[in-house]
Amino acid sequence: MNTVIDSGIVEQHNAKAMANLEADYAALGGMLARRGKDIEQLTALAQTFAVALPSWGVGTGGTRFARFPGPGEPRNVFEKIDDCAVINQLTRATPLVSLHFPWDKPTDVAALREYADRYKLGFDSVNSNTFQDQLGQAHTYKYGSLTALSAESRAQAVQHNVECIELGRALGSKGLTVWVGDGANFPGQQNLRGALERYLDSMRGVYAALPDDWQVYIEHKLFEPAFYATTIADWGTSFACATELGPKAKCLVDLGHHAPNTNIEMIVARLAQFGKLGGFHFNDSKYGDDDLDSGSINPFQLFLIFNELADASARDGEAFKPSYMLDQSHNVTDPIESLMNSAVEVQRAFVQSALVDRAALAQYQQDNDVLQSAQALKHAFRTDVSPILAMARLRSGAPADPVGCYRASGYRAKQAELRPAKAGASSSGIV
Amino acid sequence: MNTVIDSGIVEQHNAKAMANLEADYAALGGMLARRGKDIEQLTALAQTFAVALPSWGVGTGGTRFARFPGPGEPRNVFEKIDDCAVINQLTRATPLVSLHFPWDKPTDVAALREYADRYKLGFDSVNSNTFQDQLGQAHTYKYGSLTALSAESRAQAVQHNVECIELGRALGSKGLTVWVGDGANFPGQQNLRGALERYLDSMRGVYAALPDDWQVYIEHKLFEPAFYATTIADWGTSFACATELGPKAKCLVDLGHHAPNTNIEMIVARLAQFGKLGGFHFNDSKYGDDDLDSGSINPFQLFLIFNELADASARDGEAFKPSYMLDQSHNVTDPIESLMNSAVEVQRAFVQSALVDRAALAQYQQDNDVLQSAQALKHAFRTDVSPILAMARLRSGAPADPVGCYRASGYRAKQAELRPAKAGASSSGIV
Amino acid sequence: MNTVIDSGIVEQHNAKAMANLEADYAALGGMLARRGKDIEQLTALAQTFAVALPSWGVGTGGTRFARFPGPGEPRNVFEKIDDCAVINQLTRATPLVSLHFPWDKPTDVAALREYADRYKLGFDSVNSNTFQDQLGQAHTYKYGSLTALSAESRAQAVQHNVECIELGRALGSKGLTVWVGDGANFPGQQNLRGALERYLDSMRGVYAALPDDWQVYIEHKLFEPAFYATTIADWGTSFACATELGPKAKCLVDLGHHAPNTNIEMIVARLAQFGKLGGFHFNDSKYGDDDLDSGSINPFQLFLIFNELADASARDGEAFKPSYMLDQSHNVTDPIESLMNSAVEVQRAFVQSALVDRAALAQYQQDNDVLQSAQALKHAFRTDVSPILAMARLRSGAPADPVGCYRASGYRAKQAELRPAKAGASSSGIV
Amino acid sequence: MNTVIDSGIVEQHNAKAMANLEADYAALGGMLARRGKDIEQLTALAQTFAVALPSWGVGTGGTRFARFPGPGEPRNVFEKIDDCAVINQLTRATPLVSLHFPWDKPTDVAALREYADRYKLGFDSVNSNTFQDQLGQAHTYKYGSLTALSAESRAQAVQHNVECIELGRALGSKGLTVWVGDGANFPGQQNLRGALERYLDSMRGVYAALPDDWQVYIEHKLFEPAFYATTIADWGTSFACATELGPKAKCLVDLGHHAPNTNIEMIVARLAQFGKLGGFHFNDSKYGDDDLDSGSINPFQLFLIFNELADASARDGEAFKPSYMLDQSHNVTDPIESLMNSAVEVQRAFVQSALVDRAALAQYQQDNDVLQSAQALKHAFRTDVSPILAMARLRSGAPADPVGCYRASGYRAKQAELRPAKAGASSSGIV
Fold it and tell me: Which segments of the protein form a coiled coil according to its record (chains A, B, C, D) (predicted)?
C-alpha cells in the first residue's frame, strides 16, 4: 500500500507520544472499569469506525463575499486523492472518498480507480451537480434543473445524474447523492406543487437508472441558493419523495440544512423508524449551512445524533447501515487538518454513544426518573475518550496526534511548492 | 332563528354606514373592472366563506406568568355558545363552533345541540384534552398520554378520545382534532422512537372508533409544553403518522407551530399534493405559539397560504375541502372583538387569493418572468377588498363594521353584570 | 439633463396609461376623502421620496454556489451609472448612487462626477471593502481587517477607509458606510473582547479623517462570512461603538442582518430614541441575509419600519434625517427591474405610513383599546396607494408603470449587444 | 449550624463512595499532571464556587397548558428555605437564596433572616414582580407596569420595587433584579419609544431608592408574555438603559432570553468590556425561555460563557464580580434534584474554563492558528472534571453524589407527608 507521509515520521511521532498515551489509557481504563466498562472493547469498536471524505473539502472554501486561498491547494482529482490519502493514513477513519461531478470527472476512470486503490482508498456515493452552469452547457439551470419548467433543462439534469451513476459504477461506488438548489426566491416565482411534481418525474428517470445494489440519497436543505422556497426543503418532503420513488431511495441528513431550533436527532430517529435513513453529511453550524468543522459548535448535538444511531443499531442490527460523510467548507484552516480533526470528532461521538448504558437508561425511562435518564446520556458524553481514540489510531498504524504528526511531516509546505496557486483565484466578488 | 344582538341595532348601524360603503364599493368596483374583474363575483364568493370558532377562544387567555381576566367572561359552554352566536351574527362567517372536552362536556348533549341550533350554529371538529390532569382522574399525564410508558395512562387517553368522538357524533360533528403535548424536556427522558411507536399504537385505537364519515386531524407543534423533543413536532411526523393510520387520518396546520423561518405555505402545498391536508388552526405569531389574532403580524403570509389553497382548489375541485378554524389566545383584547376581526382577516385573504390571475401567473412562470410572477401575487394582495367584505356582510344580514356595531350594542357591559368574575381567578403564578 | 431612455417612450407610455390612472386616482381620492384624507397631499409627499441605489446592485448577484449572469451587465462604473440613470428616470425616486471601493474606483474622479451630474445623479455614502483581498494587496484580510491581530492588516484597512473618504469627498458624498465581515468561524479563534478593542482603535483612525459635515455609518450583521462570532453582530454592539466614537458615528440598519424573529422596527425606534439612527439598507429576507427585493417577503414589516420613521419625524422634525439605500442581490431578475420595483415598494411604505392617523392612534393607546390601535396601522397598510405612486411619477416626468415602460424601451436588449459578457464569468464554485 | 439532612447520612454515603472517588481522582490527577495542570489547585478553586438559588425554583413549575404538581412542595418561604438548605448542604455551592416578592414576602423579616442564618444561608438579589396582579391590588398591570400609560399603575410598580429594596435591605441583600414583561402583543398597541421613555422615568425612581452599596440588575427577554414587542427585549436596550441610569445599574443575562442563534457568550464579552455585566440567570433551552436545567441542552455553550468570564476575570481582576443565580422551571423532575444537579453543572463549566491554557490560546490566536485555538477550548471542555467536583464537595462536607445521597435520605417522602398538596392546584387551564 502506498503512503503519502513517510511511515517513519508516524513511527517517530508515536514513539514520543507512547509513554503519556499509555499512562492516560491506563488511567481511563481504570475509571471505566470502575463503571463496569471494558476499555478494550471500546478501542476495538473505535477501530471499526469510518466516515467518507468529500473531494471538494480538501480545497479552501469561501463565501459569496470572498475566498481566501491557502497554499498548496489540489488542482485536480488526483491531487485531491493524494490529500485524502494523507487524511486516511493519519486517522485510519476515512477509507472512502466521495466525488463530485463534473468537478472531479476523470478522463480515464480506470486510472483514477487504480490510483486510489494504491492508497487503499475506495469511493463512496457520487454527487451530481446541477446547481451550476458548466462552460458550454446546452441548457441553463438558472431557473431550476430537475424541477425546471424547461423540458430541455430537466432532461439534461436527469442525463447528468445518469452519467454520474455510470461513472460511480466504474469507480466501485454504490450510491448517488442528489442535492438540488432548485426553488424560488420570491412568492409566485414557482408553482410550489408543480415544482415538486416535476422533481418526482425527473427523479423517476434517475431512479430507473440505478443498479440493483445502489441507493439514491435525497438531500434536503432549508434555503440557499433559493431564498424563499426550496423544493426539497425539509425532511418531510425528502421522506415523501423517497417513499414515492421506491426502496432504493433514501434520505440524507446534512446537519446544517435545518430551520433554527430544529431537533435533528429526532429527525434521525424518525427516518430510522420509517426505514428511510440513508446517510449523513456531517458538519456543524451556528446559523445556517455554515459548513463548519464537525463538533466545533455543538458537540452534544453530535453525540445525541449518534445516540439515536446506536439505538437504531441495537434495534435493527445489520440492516441499519447509513452512509457517513463529512461535508464541510474550510475557509480559515488547513483543509487536511480540519478533515482529520472532524473525522476524529465524529468518531468520538460514535465511541461516546457506545458508553451509554442502554439497559439502565431504559429502566430510568420506565420509572419516569427523568433526571437520571438525562444523566445517563450526560455521563457518557462527559467521558473523555481521547485516549481510546488515540490508542485505536496507534493500533491501526496511525499517529496518536494526527495534526501534530501532519505538521511535523511538512506535507503542506511541500505541496505549496509543487502546486502553485492559479492566478486570480482569490476572490469571488459575488455579493 | 335566535339572535343575541337586537337586529334593530344592526339595521341602524348599517343605515348609517350605507352611503359611504356604497360609494367605496362603487369606487373599488370600477378599479377592479378596469383590471377585468367583476366585483359582484367576489362579493358572492366572500359570502360563502366560513371559519369555525374555538369555544375556548371566547374567554380571556394568558401565559404561564399571568392571566388578566376581562369582564363578562363566559362561565360554561352555554355562555360560550352565546358569545359565538354574537360573532356569527355580526360577521356571518363563523357558523360552526369547535368544542374542547372535558372543558365543554355537557351534562345534556341534546340540550346543547338544540341550544346551538336555535342560533343556527353547528359543531365543527371536537378536541380532546390529554395535556392536563383533570380532578379525580385515575392516571396522570405528567409523563405523557397517548405516548406514556404507563399502559394505564395510554388506555385512559385513548378512551377519552373515543368518548370525544361519541360526544361529537351526538352533536353532529364530523371530525376529531388530536393535539398532544407529549414529549421530553431533556435528552434521554424518552426513547424518541419508542414514544412514536406508542403514539401510533394508541392512535390506531382512536382511529378504529371513527365513524365512516369522520376524519381525525393530527396537529403537530414544535415545542411547548415539551421543551426538548415533542413527539408530533413537525409536518413530516404528522404526515408519516397520517399515512400509517389510513385515509381518515389527515394533518392539521396551526400557523404558530413551526420552527423559525419555516415556509408554511409550502407545507400547505405539500400536504395538499399528497392528499393529507385536513385543516387549519388560524392565528398569527412572531416568536412561537403566540396565538395572536390572525393576520396581525404577517398578513402576506396568510395571503400566501390562501394562494396555495386556491391553487389546490383549482386543481382538485370539490375533493379539496380542508377544515378552517381559528385558534387564538386573547390576552389583552375583548375576545369577541378579536374573533370577529380575525374571521374577517382570514376571509380577506380568501377573497384576495381569488384576485390572483392564475392564467397570467402560469404564463409568467412559464416564461421565467420572475418579477412579474411575484408582482401577480403582490397585486392581488395589495388590493384593499374591505368594501367587498363589508358588502358581503351587509347582504348576509351582518353589519358593515362588526366591531363598531358590537360596541354600540353594549353586549359586553351587559354580560359583565350577568356573569360576575370568579374570585381568585386572576393569576396563575406558574413560572 | 441627459436621459437614457428616450423621453418620447415615456410620454407614449403615459398617454396610454392616463385614462385608467386618472379613473383609479379619482376613485382612490374619493375613498380617502371619505376617511378625511387629501390625496393631493399624499401625492405631493410621494414626490419628495428618495432612496439611494447601490452601484453593485445593477449587476447580477449570486451565491457561493453559483452566479447565473444576465445579458448586458455593466462592466465598469460608468455603465453602472447609466443603469442607475435609467432607474431614476423611470421612478424619480433614486437620485443618488452609492459607490463601493475599490470596485468602483475611478481613474478620474472629476470625470465620474461630471458623468453622473449630466444625469442629475448625485452620490450617497461611499462603501469601503475590506472583506476581500484585492490583487496585489500587501496584507491579507483572511484573518480580519479592522480587527486583525496583524498591525499591518489593520493599518491597511484604516488607510483604505481614509482613501474612501477622500474619494467620496471629491464626489460630493457626505458619508462613509463601514461594513466588515470580521469575526471568527470557531470558538477560540478570536478573543472576542480583544477583537472589538482593535475595531474601536481602528475606527478611531477612520473617524479622525471624517470631514466636519460627514457621518460614518456602522453596519452590523449577525453572520456571514464569519460563522461563529461576528465582531459587529448586532445593534447593541453597533450602538456601543457609535457612542464610543462620537457624534459623527451612527448606526446603519440592514433589514437582513438580524437574528431570526428579531423585531426590527423596535431597533429602529431604539436607535431613533438614542439619536444614533444613521440609515438603512433596504431589502427583504426570509432566512438570512437573503438580499431579496424590498417588500417581497414581508411587506407589513417594511410598513412598520416606516411607521417608526414617521413617528420619529413627528417627534424630532428636521433633525431626523436617516439615509435610505437599497442593498439587494438580484440573482434571477433583471437588476434594473428589481431596483425600480424595490424603490417603489419602499416609497409605498413611506406613503402608507403617512396615512396613519397618529392622533387617533395615540388616543386608542391611551385608552388601552388594543384592537383599534392595531387596526389603525392595518387600515393604513391595507390602503392600496398604487394610484398615488403612479400619479407622483407621472407628475415628476416618469412613467406610470416603470417596468412596463422599461421593457417597451428595449434598453436591456440594446445593452446586451453593447456589453458582451466576460468569458468564464458564469460560476463561482466556492462551496 | 443547622442541617436538614442528618450528617450521618452524608458521612455514610461518602464512606461508600470514597474508594472509587480516590481512585478516579488519582487517575485524573495523573492525566492533568501530564498536561502540566495541578489537580489540587482546581479542587481548591471548585470549592470557592457559588451560585444563588431562586426561591421559586423549589416548587414544581408548569406551562400555560398545565402544571403537574410533585409531592411535598413547599407551601411558604420558610419551607422554601428548608429545601434550599438541603441543596446547599448537599452541594456546598449554593449559599445564597434569591427571594421573589410579594410571593416570598415575610410577615416578620427578622425572623426569616434568622431562620436562614441558622442554615448559614444568605440572601442574594431580591426580585420584584409586576407581571401579575395580586389580589386586592389597586391598579392593574394588564397593560404594563413600569411602562404603563396609567400613571397610577406606574407609580404602584415603582413603589413595589422600592418596597422590595427595603425588604432586601432588612435581609442583607445587596441587589434588586427587575424583570418586566411589559410590551405589546400587536403592532400599534404601544408607541415603542414612548414605552421605553416611561420605563426609564420609572426606573429613575427605583434607582433613586438604591442604597449606596446596591446594584439594580436589568433583565431583558425577547418575548413572553409580550408576543410582539417587549420593552426590554435585548441586551442593546438593557445596556442603553443601564447607561442612562448610572453606575449602580447593570445588565443581567438569562440564557433563555435571546433570539434563536444568538451568540450569548459574545453578549457576555460585550457587557464585560463596557463594564455593565451585572449577573446571570443560569438555565438551558432549545427553543425559547424553556427554563430547563443548566447544561442539559448545550453544555458547550455554558462552557463558552464561563470562558468569557474567565477572560474577564483575568483582565479585570477583583473588580469583575457578576452575580450568579439559577433560574429554572422544574416541570417533570424533583426540583431539589434539578437544582443540585444544575449547580454542579455550572460549577463544572467554571472549573473547565480554568483548564484553558490562556497563554497558549493567545499565542495560537496571534499566529492565526485557527484549528489549534479552537482545540485549546475543546481540550479543556472535554476534560471530565467530575472527580474534582466530587472531591471539592467531600472536602467541604457535602456528599460525593448529591442526588444519590438525597434520595437515600428520604427527605422528599418525609416532606410529602408534612406538606400535603393544596386542593385544586393541579392545572392552570390558561391556553
Answer: none
Q: Does C228 touch chain D (CB under 8 A)?
A: yes
Q: Are D267 and D235 in contact (CB under 8 A)?
A: yes
Q: Give the residue from C57, C49, C56 showing the smallest Cα distance to C345.
A: C49
Amino acid at C200: L
Among D100, A239, A260, smallest CA distance to B236 is for A239
Render each residue's pLDDT in chain C as its tens digit; 431 residues. 788 999 999 999 999 999 999 999 999 999 999 999 999 999 999 999 999 999 999 999 999 999 999 999 999 999 999 999 999 999 999 999 999 999 999 999 999 999 999 999 999 999 999 999 999 999 999 999 999 999 999 999 999 999 999 999 999 999 999 999 999 999 999 999 999 999 999 999 999 999 999 999 999 999 999 999 999 999 999 999 999 999 999 999 999 999 999 999 999 999 999 999 999 999 999 999 999 999 999 999 999 999 999 999 999 999 999 999 999 999 999 999 999 999 999 999 999 999 999 999 999 999 999 999 999 999 999 999 999 999 999 999 999 999 999 999 999 999 999 999 875 545 555 66
D235, D271 Cβ separation under 8 angstroms:
yes
Hey, what's the cell of C413? 436588449
Read off the pLDDT band of D2 (50, 70, 90): confident
Please calculate the CA angle C268-C271-C275 and round it to the nearest 5 degrees.
135
Banded pLDDT at A355 (limits 50, 70, 90): very high
SS3 labels along C120-157: CCEECCEECCCCCCCCCCCCCCCCCCCCCCCHHHHHHH
User: Does C375 reach chain D within 8 Å, measured CB to CB?
Assistant: yes
Residue B185, chain D, CB below 8 Å: the answer is yes
Contact D139, D150 (CB under 8 A): yes
A&D contacts, CB < 8 Å: 84
Report the alpha-carbon distance of residue A160 to residue D358 in Å, rounded: 52
- Cβ distance B239 to A240 less than 8 Å, yes or no, reads yes
Per-residue pLDDT, D270 = 98
Residue B43's SS3 state is helix
Q: How far apart are CA C348 and CA C345, in angstroms?
A: 5
Write out chain B residues lying below 8 Å of D68, CB-based: 133, 140-142
pLDDT at A3: 87
User: In residues, how long is chain C?
Assistant: 431
Contact B377, B356 (CB under 8 A): yes
- Give the bridge partners for C176, in sequence order: C126, C216
CA distance A394 to chain B (A): 33
Can you give the pLDDT at residue B203? 98
Pairing type for strands C229-230 and C183-184 reads antiparallel
**Could you tell me which CATH number the domain at C51-385 has?**
3.20.20.150
Q: Look at phi and psi of residue C55 and say left if phi exceeds 0, alpha if psi is from -120 to 50, else beta.
A: alpha
Looking at chain A, which residue has its C-alpha nearest residue B234? Answer: A236
Strands (E), A132-245: 175-178, 183-184, 215-219, 229-230
Reported as type and span, the H/E element at residue C272 is helix C264-273
- Cα-Cα-Cα-Cα torsion C169, C175, C181, C184, nearest 10 degrees, comes to 110
D234: left (phi over 0), alpha (psi -120 to 50) or beta: beta
* A55 at D interface, C-beta within 8 A: no
Would you call the peptide bond into C102 cis, given omega within 30 degrees of 0 as the criterion? yes
- D111-132 burial, b for 16+ CB within 10 Å, e for fewer? ebbebbeebebbbbbbbbbbbb
Please indicate whether, in this complex, the C-beta atoms of C269 and D196 are within 8 angstroms of each other: yes
CA distance A353 to chain C (A): 24
Close Cβ partners of D307 (under 8 Å, ≥ 6 residues apart): C187, D265, D353, D356, D377, D380
